[in-house]
Specification:
Length: 74
Amino acid sequence: MVFAWKSAGLTYNRYLAVAARAVRRSLKDGPRVAAERRGNMDLRFAKWENGKQGEVKNLAEANDQALAANAESK
């Protein structure tokens, strides 16, 4: 038996993110605001070269820049 999220082409992590967002949006105003704050993530990464850490970047900003650069090149 294939899971619905898998047959839809989603990873399990993406499936959980979509489900969590749906639950947060279904809450009443007070609990929804608190839940949405907990749902925000601030992920950072750094590229390592020759054993040295490069510049630390915000993942969301880097992703937005890559999408914009990809859209311009097409």
